[in-house]
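Title: Comparing notes on inverse folding

I've been comparing how different people in this forum approach sequence design from structure. To keep things fair, I'm posting one structure and asking everyone to reply with a full sequence. Here's the target:
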């Protein structure tokens, strides 16, 4: 499985497509670290993440923590259903600190 990254606008925004799982965590980590070197802020669009496991979630959490440590504002936006489910499972919305938009679909838990 491959994670696709798309750098948007001035290089401070990136969109992740595909599974963010243990199988691609090292690749994803390297891309996120490269993006953090570009400036004092980075926005990561997670709307096209179709699978997120514990390793992928730990990577996002570590990225946020590393950003705080280095003075880089790391914002996670456009959380997909897969991402929202894991954040909810671990009760980590407050820890991540990013606004979450909950889709209003009938019969959906989110």
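Reply #1:
Here's my take.
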């Amino acid at each position: 499985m491959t994670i696709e990254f798309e750098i948007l606008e001035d290089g401070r925004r990136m969109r992740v497509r595909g599974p963010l799982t243990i199988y691609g965590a090292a690749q994803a980590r390297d891309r996120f670290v490269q993006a953090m070197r570009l400036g004092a802020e980075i926005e990561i669009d997670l709307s096209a993440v179709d699978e997120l496991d514990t390793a992928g979630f730990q990577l996002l959490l570590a990225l946020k923590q590393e950003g705080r440590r280095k003075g880089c504002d790391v914002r996670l936006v456009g959380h997909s259903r897969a991402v929202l489910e894991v954040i909810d499972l671990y009760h980590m919305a407050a820890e991540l600190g990013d606004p979450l938009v909950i889709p209003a679909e009938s019969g959906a838990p989110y």
